[in-house]
Amino acid sequence: MGKAQKYVLLGDATYPLQDWILKPYQEDEKLTQRQLQFNYRLRRAHSVIENAFLRLKARWQILLKCDDCSLELLPTLVLACCILHNVCEAHDNPFNEEWLEGAEPTELPKPCQPAPAAMEDARAEQVRELMCQYFESCGEG
Prior knowledge:
Distance between the termini: 18 Å
Shape: globular
Strand order of the largest sheet: 1-2
Order of helices and strands: EEHHH
Radius of gyration: 18 Å
Domain DDE Tnp4: 5-86
Keywords: Hydrolase, Metal-binding, Nuclease, Nucleus
Number of helices: 3
GO molecular function, one term: hydrolase activity
Protein name: ALP1 protein
Oligomer: single chain
Subcellular location: Nucleus
């Protein structure tokens, strides 16, 4: 859209809107078609991320039980698993679907209430609007 953007994290409605955290528009009857499309695309991207993490944890099940690992080693362990996982995926190393049985996603507790509006960054709405325009220009998908 003619403006360079930084990387952003994807959040849900409980996160404050920041220029580095994209969150969906609040679901209500006032959303425009373009805002609904943005929310849909955000949900799709989030599901891709969840699936990638599920495959990572299934292939490297040590990540499921890192509680016996020192905190200093943990970042290196996670990074090593990510690198090895990407190498396996890039070289079409077969993924055994049975691995998924041991790595089912667990629901972690999440905040129930949206972040207070005071925590939101006004500039972030411009970022979300740019992304909205971009998704609209890309068409369906």
